[in-house]
Amino acid sequence: MTTEIDVELVQAWPEHCESIRLRLPEGANLGEALRRAAEAGFAPAAIIDQGCLAIYGKTVTPATLLRAGDRVELLRPLIADPKQRRRDRAGGKP
Questions:
Q1: Does residue 22 lie within any of the structural domains?
Q2: What is the pLDDT of residues 39-94, one digit of tens each?
Q3: 29 in a domain, yes or no?
Q4: Residue 94 lies in a domain
Q5: CATH number for the domain including 8?
Q6: Is 63 contained in some domain?
Q7: Which domain holds residue 67?
Q8: Distance between CA atoms of residues 68 and 62, nearest Å
Q9: Number of separate domains in the chain
Q10: Paired sense of beta strands 71-74 and 58-59, if any
């Protein structure tokens, strides 16, 4: 008998949050979860940049094995370097 785990995929936007809960076989990886979520119609899973994935704030890859209760965060790519933005606001001084 295969044991199953529950995980949640979330993506936050400034004005709203999208999420989906999945039941996967134990030993499933993040790539499998993304495929399953996309098949279920969770649009963010189909278009996510694979370099923008995290579990509880820690960057991961699609090969990462999931554990019961994991919250997978589908992160938005940065549009600007935060350090450079601070430098620009401070007048360009390093």
A1: yes
A2: 999 988 777 787 889 999 999 999 999 999 999 999 877 777 778 888 888 886 55
A3: yes
A4: no
A5: 3.10.20.30
A6: yes
A7: 4-89
A8: 16
A9: 1
A10: unpaired
- d(CA 31, CA 33) in angstroms, rounded, equals 5
pLDDT of residue 72: 96
Residue 92's pLDDT is 60
CA distances from 9 to 59, 63, 77, 82 (A): 14, 15, 17, 26
Q: What is the pTM of this model?
A: 0.77
In this structure, the number of other CB atoms found within 10 A of the CB of residue 74 comes to 21
Q: Which of 51, 68, 69, 47 is nearest to 60 (CA)?
A: 51
What is the C-alpha to C-alpha distance for residues 9 and 11, in angstroms, rounded to an integer?
7
**Does position 37 have pLDDT exceeding 60, yes or no?**
yes
Q: What is the CA radius of gyration of the chain?
A: 16
